[in-house]
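Below: protein 1.
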Amino acid sequence: MGDRVQQQFDAVSSRYDAQRRMLIPCFDDFYGMAAWAADSAAAEPRILDLGAGTGLMSSFMRQRYPRAHITLTDFTASMLDKARERFAGDSRVDFVQADMTGELPEGPYDLIVSSLAIHHLRHEDKRLLFGSVMARLEDGGRFVNADQAAAESPLFDRLYREQWLRDIYDGRLAAEEADAPCFEGKSTSTRKCPSSFAGWRKRASPASIASINIGILPCSAP
C-alpha cells in the first residue's frame, strides 16, 4: 500500500476506534458477524489478522476464542502501537509490522481474518494476497474478509452511499474526520462486488466459498 494511505492512518490512529463506531453502520453486528463466520474446531486456534490496525477485529476474535494465539499485522507502526495498548499483558498476542503486498507470516493458521483493509489494495495485489492466504491456512482452516464492496446493482450502490453520507455528516463527527473516508470512498477503483472477490478466491484454491450480504466473505481450505 502507498505512503498516502499510511499517512492517513498515522494521522487518525489515536481516534480510530471512536471514529469506526460512527463510520460503520451496525458496528457491533459487522464485527460480530465476521467473528461468527470465523469458525474453528481448534481449542486454541492460531489466528492471523491482516491489516489489523488497532486490533478491533482481533478483539472480537479474542472474545470468541479466549485461548487463541493471535498474530496482528499492519504496515502502520502507530496503529500497531494502539493494538499493543489494547492487548497489554496478553501473552498470546504477537505483532508484526508488514505490508499485505509483501511476505506474510508463514503459519500455518487455523483462521486468517481481515476487516476493512484489503479494499485499499490494487486488484492485482488482492488476487496475489488471496493466493498467499490460502497457502498459509491449515487443512480445514478458514479465511474471513469483512470489507466494503461495491453492490451488484449500481442503483443499490448509489442508494447506500447517499444514506451513508447523510449519516456521517449528521454532526456526530467533525467535518474533517468525515471528509477523509468520504474522499477515499469517491474512488471505486479499489472496490469490487462480492462475486468478483469470490472468483479471485476460487482461482486461488478449489475450496468452497460463501458470501454474506454485509460484505463478509468466509472461505475454507480443503
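Below: protein 2.
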Amino acid sequence: MKIIKSILSWIIPIAVGLLIAWGVTHFIVSFVRVDGTSMAPNLSNNERVVQFVNGKVRRGSVIVFDAQGEDPSVTESKKYVKRVIGVPGDTISATNGEIKVNGKKINQDYISESQQYATNNPGPVNIGNWSSLKQLGTRMEWQQAKPVKVPEGKYFVLGDHRSVSNDSRYWGFVDGSKVSGVVKVPFWDNSDKKTAINEQWKHFFE
C-alpha cells in the first residue's frame, strides 16, 4: 500500500498539471507563430503571439484561422493570421485604398498610405476598385458564393501588408468554424503595436 500511495503521490499532481495545461491551451490561450510578412509592420515573420481561443471576434480584430478549405491553394491544414474587416451582414467597398464598411470610412492608421493604396493596387495582380463584395468576388473568380453582404457565420479579412497578403480579396470569406482564436500582443510590447493589434477594434471607423 505504501508503494501505491507513494506512486500516486507524484502521479496525481503530474496528471492534474497536464490536465490544466491542456485546458489552458485548448480553451483559454495558446501560442501561434506568424508565418510570412502579410501582417507587417505590425506582426513580423516567425513572431510568436498569443491567441485567445474564445476571444470575441470584432471588426479590426486580428484572428488566427485554418486556411484549408478557405484559400483554394492550401491543400492541408495551415494557420493564417489576418485582420477582420467585415463581419456578418456588412457591405464592403474599396476605392484607391479607402475602405468603407456599411458606407462608413474605416480608420487605417495602423498601416502606411502606400499599403492602404495596395488594397486595390497590390502590384502584380490587378484587383482594382470594387463597389461591392459581389463585384470583387466576380472579378477575382472566387470559388465560393459572391454575395453583396458578408454571409452569416463568415468574416472578410485582409493582411496589413496589402501588397503581398493573400487574403479575402483573392478567395472570399473565412468561416467562423475555422477561427481558432483572437491575437493579442503582450503588455510589455511597444504601445503602437498594442494599439494596432489589441485595440484597433475600438477605433475601427474614422
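Strands lie at 29-33, 48-52, 62-66, 79-86, 92-95, 98-101, 104-105, 154-158, 174-175, 179-184.
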